[in-house]
């Protein structure tokens, strides 16, 4: 019997185990949050980084990638690897994966996910909520054995951007009290001379990812600014004014 594993963080771009197939999809009733402290990968015990975990959220979804592993030997190797890699994530769950927003039947059931819970008795590295600015500041400063925390953030942003084509069928709501910022990767680095202002880019990246999961951004620049010659590179970002 095949085993499936769902990745919603670094597993999207860095799997680390053999798999036979992959499925882009989402789980229901959860949202992705930067509430887990990382002292072994993207931070240290003295200054933990922040990585994503899941928290229950009625009516919300979290996009990611599910990996199918067929051979028993590969399953055992993958689990051994994941138990080490995800050792700071104290819960395992099995969920349904959907690949179509309109579907009532899951594409795959019984998919394994790792979750870092909010129970600090079981999860001593849980950091919990903070303002977007505080989270961005912490991510920019933290660094661990796996590298700078900001690289984790930007890699995740890039990975989710590559998944966007699978989200085009979703209905996006445009919420008020936001600042619309249209940019491609090169334009952002030169935006208002902020080429090295990692904290502002981190802030924008964080809000972009939260917006993807919470369905609060329009999908391309055509919807506000008219059709362009390079719509695919003009991703719309919404950023809370700060």
Automatic annotation (TrEMBL):
CDD domains: GGCT_like
A Pfam family this chain is assigned to: ChaC
Keywords assigned: Lyase
Its EC number(s): 4.3.2.7
GO molecular function, one term: glutathione specific gamma-glutamylcyclotransferase activity
Gene3D superfamilies with a match to the protein in the record: Gamma-glutamyl cyclotransferase-like
EC class name: lyase
GO biological process, one term: glutathione catabolic process
GO cellular component: a single term: cytoplasm
Protein name: glutathione-specific gamma-glutamylcyclotransferase
Organism in which the protein naturally occurs: Coffea arabica (Arabian coffee)
């Amino acid at each position: 019997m095949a085993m499936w594993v769902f990745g919603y963080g670094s597993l999207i771009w860095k799997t680390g185990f053999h798999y036979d197939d992959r499925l882009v999809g989402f789980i229901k009733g959860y949202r992705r949050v930067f509430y887990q402290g990382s002292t072994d990968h993207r931070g240290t015990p003295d200054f933990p980084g922040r990585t994503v975990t899941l928290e229950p959220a009625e009516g919300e979804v979290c996009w990611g990638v599910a990996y199918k592993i067929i051979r028993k030997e590969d399953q055992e190797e993958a689990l051994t690897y994941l138990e080490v890699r995800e050792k700071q994530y104290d819960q395992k769950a099995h969920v349904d994966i959907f690949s179509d927003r309109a579907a009532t039947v899951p594409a795959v059931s019984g998919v394994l996910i790792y979750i870092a819970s909010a129970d600090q008795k079981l999860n001593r590295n849980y950091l919990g909520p903070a303002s977007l600015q505080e989270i961005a500041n912490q991510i920019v400063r933290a660094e661990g054995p796996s590298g700078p925390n900001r690289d984790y953030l930007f890699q995740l942003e890039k990975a989710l951007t590559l998944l966007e084509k699978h989200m085009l069928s979703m209905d996006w709501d445009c919420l008020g009290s936001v600042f619309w910022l249209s940019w491609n990767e090169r334009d952002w680095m030169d935006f208002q001379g902020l080429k090295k202002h990692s904290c502002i880019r981190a802030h924008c990246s964080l809000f972009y990812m939260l917006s993807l999961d919470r369905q609060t951004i329009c999908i391309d620049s055509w919807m506000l600014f008219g059709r362009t010659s390079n719509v695919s590179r003009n991703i719309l970002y919404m950023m809370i004014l700060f």
